[in-house]
Here is the input.
Amino acid sequence: MSAAELDLRRLIDSHQPGHALAREFYSSPEIFERDMERILLRHWFCAGHVGSVPRPGNFLVVDLGLESVIIVRTQEGQIKALLNVCRHRGSRICTERSGKAAAGLLTCPYHAWSYDLNGRLVAARQMGASFDRAQFALKGLQVRVVEGLIFTTFAEQPLSFDSTEAAMSQSLRVHGWAEAQVAHREMYSIKANWKLAIENYMECYHCQPAHPEYSKHHALARPFAQTRHLDRPARLRAEAMGIFIADVDQYGLAAHPGSESVSVFRSPLLEPTAEALSGARPAPLMGDFSGFDGNSTYVDIGPLSDFLAYVDHGVIYRFIPRGALQTDMEVIWLVHGAAREGEDFDVESLTALWKTTSLQDKAIVEWNQAGVNSRFFKPGPYSDQESYARRFTEWYLSELNGQDSIPGAEAGPLASHQA
Ligand code: FES
Ligand SMILES: [Fe+2]
Here is the structure.
């Protein structure tokens, strides 16, 4: 065992259950490298929505750590994921966050090697008669498209996605996400370790002090005992519309070895009107909804991809770890595929709540990182309202240990999370 491994073993062994992680987990470049190898490159993550690549040649660039992937729609209409690393001397090929491949080719800006939309090298200047282009295709990554959401992974032998896909389809098909369009995308740069950003997303203990706007509308901001009475009426309203979305919890459980984790739950809204969330002009209802049922649907996949569905719009949260002290967070708003901007919905009022909430989150997570950087920081205990954050740290440590599930974890209700 190397000195670094011994150190890591000592840190894992000294973790106090029910408490936040030690400072090193949130700041060490070596542990960030370990996070990448053991966790982030192994799992599936959401790269975006098919509405961002509607036509052949449309591409998106998505990053993770130092890695970069081109998500492109081929001439045949398939979605492909190609490593954004040229097979000549390694330059990035696509340098914009999104765009359209000129003449149906992905051309490297350095020496102009050109690849078709399937990643095959089709042109390389002055490489000699013996040069075999067929040996220099771009590396392809596995892709799954579920309810309009594009997932990819760097793993050669990925975690099974079948039960994940089934749970996602059961919850998001009702919301009509496969037919949605992307109304807006926003990238937030957070100077903090990815685990602090995720823990923050996973708990709503902070919502009342940090998110007054969100807390006006969402039951999750309150202790469960205060809002429990809203659960049944909200479920009955949904059932009256023929809406049934089952709660699912396959997050780090031994019952699902080798599978990507997924959790789904519905939570009532305190002000159950579309206007409260989307401004004076709510967007058209999506999917199977014939009215406002007073619920919101939360779906989490793997460590980095989270989704929130309302009756008239959806919100995708993509967390993008960059380095030990840097995480990007992309927020993507979805509306009905046939809705017309300016006539059927207004981007500003549609995005106002989650823009405000995301900026508040960026600030509190950065303050959290600043405090955790102190050599005197001692991890404190999680509250009842932070049970998902607690579960996340336990899951994280078990993954870092090379385990496939949280030792001793069982399916069961957890107190509120999110925002
Ligand atoms: S590095 Fe891409 S063409 Fe040379
Ligand atoms: Fe938050």
Notes: DSSP finds ten helices and 17 strands in the chain. Confidence is low (pLDDT under 50) at residues 411-416.
